[in-house]
Amino acid sequence: MIETFEEFVKRILALLFWFILLSPLIIFPILFLLVPIFGIDVTTVNEILTASIDPIKALKLVEELGLGPSSTFFKVVAFPGFTFAALVATITILYERKLIAKTQLRVGPLYAGRFEGFLQPIADLFKLLGKELIVPEKADKAFFWAAPILSLALGASLLAVIPLSPTIYIARSDFSLLIPFAIIGFSPLVVLIAAWASSNKFAFIGGLRALHQLAAYEIPMLISILGVVVLTGSFDLMEIVEAQKNMWFIIPQFLGAIIFYITILSELERVPFDLPEAETEIVSGWLTEYTGMHFGLLQLGVYIKFYVLALLFTLLFLGGWNGPAFLPPVVWLLTKLFFVISLIIFPRAVLPRLRLDQLIRIGWAWLIALSFINLFIAVIESSLGVI
Amino acid sequence: MPNSVMNVVDQGGDRLVLHVGPQHPGSGHFRIIVTVDGDYIVDAKPDPGYVHRGAEKMAEYRDYIQNIPHLERPVIIDASGVTLPYVLAAEKIIGVEPPVRAEYIRMIMAELNRIISHLYWLAIYGIFLGHSTMFMWPMGDRELFIDLAESIGGTRVTFSYIVPGGVRNDIPINFKERALKTFDYFEKRIKEYEKIFFNNPLMAARTEGIGVLKKDDAIRLGITGSNLRASGVDSDTRKDEPYCMYKKVDFDIPTRQEGDSYARCVVRLRELQQSMNIIKQVFDLIEPGPVKQVLGGVMRGEPGEAFVRTEAARGTMFYHIVSDGDKIPYRVKISVPSFRNLIGMSHLLIGSRLADMPAIYWSLDYWPVEADR
Amino acid sequence: MNYKLISGILGAFVVGLRNVFKRRMTLKYPEEHLEIESGYTYDAKTETGSPGFKGRHILYTDKCTGCSLCAIACENIADCIDMVKVEGSWPTNPKNIMPQIDYGRCVFCGFCVDACPFDCLFMTPEYELSATDKRKLVHTPFQLAVFPEKKGNVKLIPDDRGAYHD
Amino acid sequence: MPKKTKIETALIESLKKKFNTTIKEEYVKPNRIKFSTTSDNFRNLAQAVKELGFDQVISQGGTDYPDNNEFRVEYHIICVSIKKFRSIIFSLMTTIPKDKPEIETLIDIWPSAEFHEQETFENFGITFINHPRMEKLLLPEDWDDIPPLRKDFHLPGRG
Predict the structure, then answer these.
(1) What is the ipTM of this complex?
(2) Model confidence, pTM
(3) CATH code, residues B53-341
């Protein structure tokens, strides 16, 4: 009987061991016997099989197929693309749980993995995978299934144009600052699709709240970053980061940074703006009917969005990968990113939830006005030649 | 999408009927049927009774001692508060007088339980406003007080400690030192609570001016306990009609004039401090002596009736016991504060926003199990 | 007003951050056990108990007379005590019956201890009574006669800087 | 009988003057005053007590007396707004026949009695005339046995 996570891992490893032991004895002979029938040279098979245990050969093989570390495919799928983002998202989830737990005088995840529960995300993943996917009888099935996938796709597509260092990026665009914001504007629609398709009153209210929230934060968010654009005269993130060589934009654009930070909290539906999923009011909001890996994908999408927005904050206001030369640029970027992620997580521990009308009042009465003031500050600064 | 449209929007035109509870993170064993028009609640009908166990009927089958573990079940987080009036009433029926030391120990126990219950309330109120730290901290600190109560009563929540004729055992020898140490620690914690929650502008924004219960309404609707005091009435049974030895201790009744959710929160926070203040005074007043009168045998009530009220954590707890001379009571009527405060809930909810529902609901400190009995 | 807003939020942040570095008060339960000094006992003469934890019962089989007073006391509370026949010869117990307690029903009120006039039924600090089988929750007189082993190794200590287990 | 305080005496006298012999002083214990009257006169008595300043119903309940074939309906009234009356609990009692368990509601005098009366209705089957919501509150909606707090209702297995 499997009772603990360790036993579960042990069982998986045991299965793997037997597979590796038995496959040369059974599977390979069959493969070598069958392959000549289809007219393929046996040496090709041999090479593929050797590559599976010889990394150097494997690398060469992958390069030949056009999937190497320098290929676009690798960039999109692995680094700095989806896998890396998902990894950061997973670490963020764990870090969030630990940080919140520490603030609340708890210990947080502790048992999965010997050290401070660092294997907890993996355990969570297995838990979510093992859960039954429940689709409500009266739900709109097609859209109900579409929402998690859309959420993840939305998060992943954000990664396309954001650079991690002068050399690490997937694609370059002159408008790489505008593209993420164009995509992010779509995210409340995903929430609404999920909410509507669930056919649940609480989910529906959550979806509507998400739409109202969009109205509250979208405009100040865009205007607050315009200040940076005014200072650099470019929509290209590369050039924006390059312009911060001498001074990070958080100093001339402090107000803009604060506004952008608040709107990030709002965009990510984090406390104090977690209205669309306010548990005690509307159960779990738009996530109410989602279970198992559906829920997992929705969450992963949200946390990839989290990563992207934290990254944007770093690039726009904290000088991106700029830093003393004794560390590679990407390390500087990730250090700053870690700080920004902490900053975004921490309000959840110390602030209560706001109400919808208060959020809209903050958005329209304060943030929009302040973001225009910030824009004027930027114009004055650029005309004075501060940068 | 015809299916989902039909399900999401009710027949009532643009009004939405929400069944909040009994399976809802913000309800407890209890349901409020809320009709919302946009974001505003136009009708709220409380529907208690999900945990009704017929405590009054069952009390007619048990003798005066056996009723004690039974009657504390409805309010296990305030177990001494709920059994104290019962025991006082039963003592009047049986005709025994507890020793003085027992009266003081009863006060310690009742006040400890008030702290435990208020901390529980505070924790839930924190999470109802989405403040998860305010959930964890009071729950953790509550454990210290539970430990104190456990060292007297022997169990964590259901003590069955106060019995007719006194209390079941004396307090432990080192209890005073332990308690004072805990109080010193907790006084510091209250300052942290204030900083992170009560003085937090966002918390104030959520609760100030929300669910305003005016003084006249509070009296008219029969609101009791901290909710009444938050509306500007300094009514407290411990002062109005002192029982045990509350005459001898000196304490304040915290009141606020606003009558909103925030006022109810602050009144409860101040009551925590007053409870500790009372226990500290009791430590000075208490003198050695017996803690229980020797009764011997099964207690029989004299024919007659008694009604007793005390100030439990949620308000005035009232017992009406009728005896026909048998060893079991003829009729036990329990009037619990939650049940009386329930009437205020629909009064406050109508006209407020849906998002304010948890803020109003739990600021009344409504305990469904207590109300259902 | 703005000053109050900002200082309030900053104050909350500072208090939250300060608590990140405090000692935890979590009891890591299966590894650590809370120390409990004694169980609840009762003196039938003064009708007063001694403060103690109300955990599993301990039955002094050599003193039990089989009077069933504990079962009668429990009758309307939890109805969990049954008097059962036991093997062997007991000089104090001519009927050879002793209490058997069903911990699936017991509420640990301790009124059975109060009811015992022969000082033979007390309570112990043992609280780990869960079982995988409902039938295992029923403890026979001989199971009740065994003293529990002491497991407690930590105590909850309130300190100036925070409460913790040690 | 214990000695009455000045406040208590004044309250009792004022009520007695108003109703003469139609009300009966059951007893006076420390801080407790109990009056009984006929069910027709009950409303007038309640009105008079309300006018004295007693403004909250702390409890309302019934008791079943199968030997006399009657229910006792009892209201326990406290005063919150006047400080000197706060220690006193007024108990107003009346009896109604079991065959026709009806009495006029008092929620227009004391709105705080609303849920209490509803509870008494479901537990004893006593109908409160003019009460807006004479329906089940705590009991299950599909309860089809006799009202449970009557003495002829027995808990299962308890004879």
Answers:
(1) 0.85
(2) 0.88
(3) 1.10.645.10
